[in-house]
Each structure stands twice: as structure tokens, then as C-alpha cells.
Amino acid sequence: MKNQEALKNFGTHLRKLREENNLSQQQLADMANLAKTTVQNIENAKYSVKFDVIISIAIALDIPITTVTDFKFKK
């Protein structure tokens, strides 16, 4: 998979955002209208995230999209 390191860092970032909101993976999934396995796969860097999923997560967490995508990654 391309950009595996970036996917890992994004997954870590999403987990941090979820935990800051005191949400379980299931709760975030329900709020974002996603499957729990989708959240798990993102957090574990097994899923390349589509833009519509990022939008759903931002809406669920009531944060700007830029907050969801504001993470550091290596090339």
C-alpha cells in the first residue's frame, strides 16, 4: 500500500481525536454512520481513507475537516 507511514500516522491521529472525545470505536462509527470495522481499520492503518469518510468523521466529531487531516507524516 502506498504511503503506509502516513496511513499509520493518520490512524494514530484519529484514535487521539476519538479518545479526546471519550468515544469508543463503536460510538464514533455510529455517529459517523460507518461500520466499526472501518474505524478499526483506519486506526490500524489497514484502510486508505476516502474523502467522504473524512467528512463523516469531521461532522460526527463536530470539528473542521482540517482538524481531522492535521497530522504529521513522513515521505
Please count the beta strands (DSSP E, at least 2 residues each).
Answer: 0
Class from secondary-structure proportions: mainly alpha
By CATH, the architecture is named Orthogonal Bundle
Shape: globular
CATH class: Mainly Alpha
What count of helical segments does DSSP give?
5
What is the helix content? Answer: 55-70%
Q: Which residues sit in consecutive blocks of at least 5 with pLDDT less than 50?
A: none
Mean pLDDT rating: 93
Describe this structure in words.
With 75 residues, the protein is mainly α. It has one domain (4-67): Orthogonal Bundle (434 Repressor (Amino-terminal Domain)), CATH 1.10.260. Helix content is 64%, strand content 0%. It is built from five helices and no strands. It has helices at 4-20, 25-32, 36-43, 51-61, 65-68. Helix 2 crosses helix 3 (36-43) and helix 2 (25-32) packs across helix 4 (51-61). The longest helix has 17 residues, at 4-20. The radius of gyration is 11 Å and the shape is globular. The two termini are 14 Å apart. The relative contact order is 0.22.
